[in-house]
Amino acid sequence: MTEPSARTSAVRGPVRWVVLGVLAGLFAWAVWGLAVGSPHAQAGKPAPAFSLFNLQGRSVPLSSFRGHLVLLNFWATWCQPCQQEIPHLIQLQKQAGSALTVVGIDRMEPANEVATYVRKAGINYPVLLDSTGHVSAMYGVSGQPESFWISPTGILLLHVPGPMTPADMQRFFSTFSGVT
Question: Mean per-residue pLDDT for 120-128?
Fold first, then answer.
């Protein structure tokens, strides 16, 4: 049996690390795809349950909104389309009154920054903090804004990726306001 030459050993070491790196990358990509890319929230199925902290530091479960038509809106303070959509959400909540509960879910920002933005923008609906991104992953959220309409019985009615126009909001509210 012959010994490997010094040159062969010198090549095997880096090749081994490259192969291990590629395998680790593929594994990480597969795990991330399962966690984020899976369609966890599907129309016609129960909305995934969660509990998040509000700006006052209290834990608020999704189930606390049961009995109301709910519009979950995933957003961030730095997101320009979110900034453009928020005044329309404020107006929708004002017009709909108790027939609808808009719930803003801020994605992974410090509570103090979110509180300052909420105060300045005059947001009139509950804002919850998805500080780890866990709930965003459960819902398959990949950007912002993204919205989910949920029936009073907790069934996911519609996923809207991207911003909604005021006409969209009115149309969806009219369509879903009689759904139980």
Answer: 98
- DSSP letter at 109 equals -
Rama region for 148: left / alpha / beta (φ>0; ψ in -120 to 50; rest): beta
Q: Of 106, 103, 105, which is closest to residue 150 (Cα–Cα)?
A: 103
Closest alpha carbon to 72 in 33, 127, 10: 127
Place of tokens 């009154």: 97
Cβ-count burial 6-41 (b if 16+ within 10 Å, e if not): eeeeeeeeeeeeeeeeeeeeeeeeeeeeeebeeebb
State which amino acid sits at residue 64: S
SS3 81: helix
- Output the CA angle 125-127-129, nearest 5 degrees: 175
Confidence of residue 70 (pLDDT cuts 50, 70, 90): very high
The pTM assigned to this predicted structure is: 0.79
Would residue 108 be called left, alpha or beta, if left means φ above 0 and alpha means ψ between -120 and 50 degrees? left
Over 50: is that where the pLDDT of 20 sits? no
Amino acid at 155: I
Residue 131, Cβ density class (10 Å: 0-12 exposed, 13-18 middle, ≥19 buried): middle
- Check whether the bond before 110 is cis (ω within 30° of 0): no
Check if the beta carbon of residue 130 is closer than 8 Å to that of residue 136.
yes
